[in-house]
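Complex record, two chains
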Amino acid sequence: MFLLAQVMATANGLRRNKAILSELGDEATTQFIVSKRALPKNGLKDSPNVHFCDVSLPRETGPGPAIEQADSEEAEEKNVIYRTVASIPIEDSEMVYCHLFQLNSCYQAMAKNNKMIVFTDDMNIRKAFYALIYNSARTGLVLDSRTYCLSSVLSATDFIMVLMKLWKFREAITSITGLQLTEEDEKRTDITEMPIRSWKEHLHNDGKLKPFQTIDVEDSLYSAAERLSSSRIHRLPVMDPHCGDCMFIITHRRLLHFIWQHAALLPKPEFLRERVRDLGVGTWSNIKYILHETPLIDALDMLMNEKISGVPVVRDEDGLEVSFASEHNLLITVIFS
Amino acid sequence: MGNNQAALHKRDRTGDGLGGSGGVVGGGGTRARAYSNNPHSPFHQSTEDGCPVQVKIAKSDEEGGMYADASFLSDTVEYPVVFKWHATNSVPPKAVYICGSWDNWKRKIPLVKSSHDFSTIVDLVPGKHEYKFLVDGKWVVDDNQPKTDNQLGTENNVIGIDEADFEVFDALDKDLASSQAGEAMKSTNQPASHDTPNDRELEKLRVFTQEIPEKKDFDKAHNPPVLPPHLLQVILNKDTPVQCDPNVLPEPNHVMLNHLYALSIKDGVMVLSATHRYRKKYVTTLLYKPI
């Protein structure tokens, strides 16, 4: 009756262990077995199916056979440590990735070595964008230059907003005065020279500034995914509650990467075999698109107005999609041209 | 014991030159304790290098004469005694000799110069000895040492050698070698030390002050120390493949952690970076700051 358990908490030295199963599982279901210590603080549901028990684990973290029998205690006494684990049966294979996210904290999704780019808010925007491009990064954190506390995030969206602002402002001036801007005027109206702080204040006054959101490193990935989709944001800085430092930034990509890392161990949910169309993933009606001939400024305008992060590029004559333009593509295009 | 070893090498060299019959007392990498049973320890002055060197030669006709233990000896046991001359003037004297009542003031024993001090070790039998220094041709006494009047109407320094002192040192030796010697020198403040003073022990006798040392003391160090080669592997300089997440860096070597890396200031922007461990993972932070 004992089935193989899927041991998820590899980072905590838990491995497949038959002894665990003899105590835990009496149903032919696949279960997650995670160390209680590694559980995210808000991830575990109060479900009657969740069992806690103490199991013996080999002390060594290196490769070795798992302990065969739970009752050979006295022989193994010295070589095992006891750890409380939780076993969560997966009743519904559709929910497997959901459970995976619920049972893992944000820390688990962190890469081995994360690069964080931090700007102080007295840095001018132009230089900050150059720095982002140079590091091929899409996001930088912004520090208050006086208190050195994190205050916001600078991303490609900011860049496009700056660009649009600049363009429209100058266009308005030329249309009112009917004159071409002189070089001096251009310099005067160049908002890319303003520090990040002023830019954020400007956004705040326009009511366009989204509140700065962070997540606790001990929170579950599920709550992180929830925050990302409910606030319609792409980047969520993960903070350590004790030292207040930012560990990394959770992105959609990071979450997908985490699923991909563990997918081999997990049962395949049914929906992976279905067609994308049938699942209703993505946008299937009223799709925004740009043509080959569409000026860049209109494309940027569309991204901002529709609050989308990318737009397909369609060939005029037959409507075939030939390319895709994302915020980051456009940022690179603009900076290097 | 660095100084002692160096001194031994010098003796070695001269000893070889004098022929194979003799051995050098106090070798063997142990403490430079010289127990010589020769009542007339000969001192030779090496003239080749102008450096006065003290050599003791054990007699070859005795079994184990080289390392003869004190218990083997019936009549007189000699103990090594350090004599030191502190140069008080800013210009140190050229040559310092010592003469004493131990050989009826016959020989002038040269003192070896080491930075500001002159010192030598003379093997003496227990008892009272009078001695005097000959500094650049002038007979002088050390005012910091016990003095006594002589028949000529002047003064001599005087030293008392007590066997018991050396037994104490033996016990101390067994406990902890070098520091104890330094302490002994400090507490007794007399030349009856059994050990050649080395810089490390002399350091302990100095006092710490609030005076700022003069700049010329550091003139030798023109450049900062060389960077250890393992720190030159800067992970931020490595190219990451295009398909990788741009925010992910290779795993750092543990020696790189908690070091500050800086990019040369360009366009008024300073870039600093440091890698820290966070549990089992790492965070590399790049700080961009305008200056």
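Note: Chain B has four helices and twelve strands.
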